[in-house]
Structure formats: C-alpha cells, structure tokens
C-alpha cells in the first residue's frame, strides 16, 4: 500500500509540475506583445468537394475549398485580430487553396505557402477523419516553423490541416476544430512552449469584455 501511495504522489507531482496554459482572454491579450506562433486549422470547407492526389495546386476543381461559412469564420478571426491590435509577422500556409484563402482572410496580407504545412494525409479520407499523429517527418517540419521565433513585436501565423497538427503535437491534438489555433510562445534558443488553444468563439468573447 505504501508503494502504491508513493506512486500516486509521484504522478500527481509530475502533473502539477507541468506549466499550465494561460486562460484564453489572458492569452489573447498577451498576443498584443508579440512573440507567439499561432497554428490554425483552416476554417470550414465544402464537403461535397474532394481532394485529388497527387495534389494539383493550380486546379481549384481538384481541391476541397472553403465554404461560405468557412470564409465568414476566417473573416471573423481576422476582424478580431485587427480590432485587438494583435501584430502579425510572417504568415505560412499549406499549399492547398483552402489554407491559403483562410490565411489571407485571417491575416489580411499575402501568405507564404510551404510544403511543411500541406495536408500530410495525402487526401486520404480515413487519415483526415482520424489523424493518428504517426507521420514524424511531417510533424518535425511543422515544429521547425513553430520553433522559429517571429520578428520582434510580432506573432507568426501558420494555417494547416488537422493531420499536420496531430503529427506535430500528438494524436490528442487531432480533436482540433475548424478555425481553432494552437498557440506557442517562442523561445530563443530552444523549442517553443505550449501556451494554450483559442477557439473561434473565444475571439468575439474577448472583444466583448
């Protein structure tokens, strides 16, 4: 029994030793100072469209696109970021148009499409539905972008897919919602540290306070 109690105490101590993520309004307020990387899953898409693999990046008919709801979601996030005076630095996106479009609407600027953020499921419906976080190479590529500190006083924005987020942060991150952001605090030197998650409704809630 004594051994069991000790094990329980050790587990609890480890749990309490982990840095707690900031409350969402506090986290959003912190973004005004810069120094963060926001990793967005693109917003809602038209499920009647299907991706064709190998990807044809210049063929919009061969890709799933944002729906009108998805465009509105991205505009809402972008309007909140502008209203809250959150400074945006570099904006990287997947090479698929839904991420490019979401990135432009969220940031209000041109974006840099990169392979590292392009859908790692390779248009596999099962992979997209149930990301396992099994693609270590894809995950490392995302983490390299996350770990790169933004320019002083700004925040970098990445727009990618559910599969890539699970690859980078573990299969538990596969529950990321459309338009949700994982936020990391940049550190130089060393890897960025997890700061929290911001859902799309959190932006308008913060503005209302």
In which range does the helix fraction lie? 25-40%
Label the overall shape: globular
Number of strands: 6
Overall mean pLDDT: 90
Residue ranges: pLDDT <50 for 5 or more in a row?
Answer: 7-20
| Element-by-element helix/strand order | HHEHEHEHHEHEEH
Main sheet: strand order: 3-2-4-1-5-6
Query: N- to C-terminal separation?
Result: 50 Å
Beta-strand residue fraction: 5-15%
Q: Note the total helix count.
A: 8
User: What characterizes the major β-sheet?
Assistant: 6 strands, mixed
Structural class: alpha/beta
Describe the structure.
The chain is of the alpha/beta class and 209 residues long. It has eight helices and six strands. Strands 3-2-4-1-5-6 form a six-stranded mixed beta sheet, with helices on both faces. Helix 3 (68-83) runs parallel beside helix 8. It is globular, with a radius of gyration of 18 Å. The termini are far apart. Residues 7-20 have low confidence and may be disordered.
């Amino acid at each position: 029994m004594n051994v069991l109690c000790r094990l329980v105490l050790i587990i609890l101590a480890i749990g309490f030793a982990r840095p707690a993520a900031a409350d969402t309004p506090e986290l959003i307020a912190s973004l005004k100072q810069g120094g963060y990387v926001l990793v967005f899953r693109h917003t809602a898409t038209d499920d009647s469209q299907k991706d064709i693999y190998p990807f044809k990046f210049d063929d919009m008919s061969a890709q799933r696109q944002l729906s009108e709801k998805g465009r509105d979601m991205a505009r809402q996030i972008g309007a909140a970021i502008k209203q809250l005076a959150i400074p945006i630095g570099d904006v990287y996106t997947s090479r698929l148009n839904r991420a490019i479009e979401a990135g432009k609407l969220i940031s209000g600027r041109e974006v840099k499409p990169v392979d590292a953020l392009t859908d790692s499921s390779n248009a596999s419906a099962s992979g997209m539905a149930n990301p396992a976080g099994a693609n270590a190479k894809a995950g490392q590529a995302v983490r390299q972008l996350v770990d790169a500190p933004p320019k002083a006083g700004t925040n970098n924005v990445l727009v990618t897919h559910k599969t890539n987020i699970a690859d980078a942060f573990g299969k538990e991150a596969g529950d990321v919602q459309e338009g949700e952001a994982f936020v990391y605090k940049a550190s130089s030197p060393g890897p960025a540290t997890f700061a929290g998650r911001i859902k799309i409704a959190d932006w308008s809630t913060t503005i209302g306070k």
